[in-house]
Specification:
With 433 residues, the chain is an alpha+beta fold. The chain has a domain at 181-403: Alpha-Beta Plaits (2-Layer Sandwich). Helix content is 28%, strand content 24%. The chain has helices at residues 22-32, 82-89, 107-112, 120-123, 151-157, 192-201, 249-254, 257-270, 281-285, 316-329, 369-380, 397-403, 407-417, 426-431, and strands spanning 2-3, 12-13, 15-17, 38-40, 54-57, 65-68, 73-77, 94-96, 130-136, 142-145, 166-176, 181-189, 207-212, 223-230, 275-280, 303-310, 337-342, 356-364, 385-387. Strands 15-12-14-13-17-18-16-19 form an eight-stranded antiparallel beta sheet. The protein is globular, with a radius of gyration of 21 Å. The chain binds flavin-adenine dinucleotide. Flavin-adenine dinucleotide binds next to strand 4, helix 3 and strand 11. Residues 6, 38-45, 49-50, 58, 78, 100-102, 105-106, 108-110, 112-113, 115-117, 161-162, 166-167, 288, 390 line the site of flavin-adenine dinucleotide.
């Protein structure tokens, strides 16, 4: 089957295995010998982390959903997507403690990237709410790990890019809510200084994220900031909006620097400062999911998202300027840029989110981008920054090893549980994992 990551920038042919139960997973692993395989969820990671010549998909695995409505503990199979879960839990007064910006993500994928949401500064990452993971490790054994037992396996699996085995199910701690709605306030800022200052002022809000205009040169870093918290209006009747596909010629017409610069101006103008609005969970958390195939709008070469975490607070502005000056000089623009400040990190070996400022850039790809990326990495090499694996397509092994400070712990643990490297992806080979 022909397959790609969400950025469509590396399209490969893979053999896909569809086990229906634990025994079939074990048999697949036994038969593989040393060929190598990677598990794939819904393919929402942007690059090559769920790509390899052999892929294991849990699409046909039985779906488990067992909610204890009193405690909010959900036991579910890892192939359930966030949309399948919220369809069942919101009307019962529960929500996920942490959600990424797409509802088309599986629980397996959310654990393997230890994803974060707009509330990281308050509530941390996804794994903080994972009570237990059931995983089939490369030796074919079924293990239960948590922060109380088999903690090394837990720390390597949460954020471990699918390299420690096949997660089959998990127990999650849910968040009690009184409404399907959020009380949202929207702010507008006119410069990067004002944006960073506003972030600090709004830090007590549960959810906080900024959209940045980085195409138009005037007032670099002007932003629309969204802050919010769950409403208390006792309306739990969530109706999810239908997602749809749009013809790809729309992408060809509009995805260019000229149109995107106009779009950014209009988007900024459309919002009013200090504007209060009620938005339901679907609108607030998953705005991009309305158009199912928006990733195809970037054309045949696809696109990449680079998500950079700047760890030194006194360098936020300097490094942001370095990043955007570099690309602007090359006439390369980010069509969608977001900014978010994170709180404390956790003990997992490869989790991304930790104290710092995260910026995401969505960049359409042209021939020769790899050379530009290498140059880009060089300007960041001596800075205290890291790049998110879930979005990565191009990072070098040297950069990765320098920027993830628990990398040796991960590699030593992986060697112990997977000496013949059964679990591998194109990304893990590139990064020497
Ligand atoms: C529009 C959009 C918005 C996003 N917003 C955010 C965000 O706000 N925060 C954030 O952190 N991320 C975000 N992401 C990234 C996304 O949450 C992650 O890439 C997530 O891991 C994708 O899950 P998936 O089911 O599609 O997994 P895939 O992309 O298929 O796989 C991702 C990784 O998970 C592993 N994996 C999947 N299932 C299993 C399993 N059962 N057992 C073991 N390993 C497994 C794969 O091997 C791979 O390494 C966003 C992505 C999109 C497209």
């Amino acid at each position: 089957m022909i397959i790609a990551g969400w950025g469509n920038n590396n399209i490969i042919r893979s053999d896909i295995f569809y086990p229906k139960n634990e025994q079939e997973i074990i048999e697949i692993l036994e038969k593989l010998n040393n060929e190598g395989i990677i598990t794939r969820g819904l393919g929402r990671s942007y690059g090559d982390m769920s790509l390899y010549k052999n892929i294991l998909s849990l699409e046909r695995y039985k779906k488990i959903f067992e909610l204890d409505e009193k405690t909010g503990i959900l036991r579910c199979s890892s192939n359930l997507s966030i949309v399948e879960i919220i369809e069942k839990i919101v009307n019962k007064g529960w929500f996920l403690n942490v959600t990424p910006g797409s509802k088309y993500v599986t629980i397996g994928g959310a654990i393997a990237n230890d994803v974060h949401g707009k509330n990281h500064h308050k509530d941390g990452s996804f794994s903080e709410y994972v009570e237990e993971i059931k995983i089939i490790t490369p030796d074919g054994k079924i293990n239960i790990c948590s922060n109380k037992s088999e903690y090394d396996l837990f720390k390597a699996t949460c954020g471990g890019a699918g390299l420690t085995g096949v997660i089959v199910s998990a127990k999650l701690k849910l968040l009690k809510i009184k409404s399907k709605n959020l009380d949202v306030t929207i702010f507008k800022t006119k410069s990067i200084d004002e944006t960073l200052k506003k972030f600090r002022e709004l830090n007590e809000n549960k959810y906080l994220v900024a959209w940045l205009d980085t195409i138009n040169k005037k007032n670099f870093g002007k932003a629309v900031i969204f802050s919010g918290d769950h409403s208390e209006d006792n309306d739990l009747n969530l109706k999810l909006k239908k997602s749809f596909n749009l013809p790809s010629f729309i992408g060809n017409l509009f995805m260019n620097n000229f149109f995107m610069s106009i779009f950014n101006k209009l988007y900024f103008l459309k919002h009013q400062n200090n504007f209060k609005v009620k938005q339901d969970i679907d609108t607030f958390f998953y705005p991009l999911d309305r158009v199912l195939n928006w990733n195809k709008f970037y054309g045949k070469k696809g696109f990449t998202q680079i998500q950079i975490l700047i760890k030194d607070e006194d360098k936020y502005k300097e490094i942001l300027f370095k990043i955007f000056d570099f690309f602007t000089e090359k006439n390369i623009y980010s069509y969608l840029t977001t900014l978010k400040e994170y709180g404390q990190g956790n003990n997992n070996y490869l989790s991304f989110a930790e104290k710092g400022l995260s910026v995401t850039l969505d960049i359409p790809l042209k021939n020769g981008f790899l050379i530009i990326y290498e140059e880009f990495e060089n300007i960041l090499l001596n800075q205290n920054v890291k790049i998110y694996l879930a979005k990565d397509s191009f990072m070098s092994k040297a950069f990765f090893h320098k920027s993830y400070n628990k990398i040796n712990e991960f590699i030593n643990f992986k060697k112990k549980i997977d000496p013949s490297s059964k679990f591998k992806s194109i990304q893990s080979q590139r990064l020497g994992l």
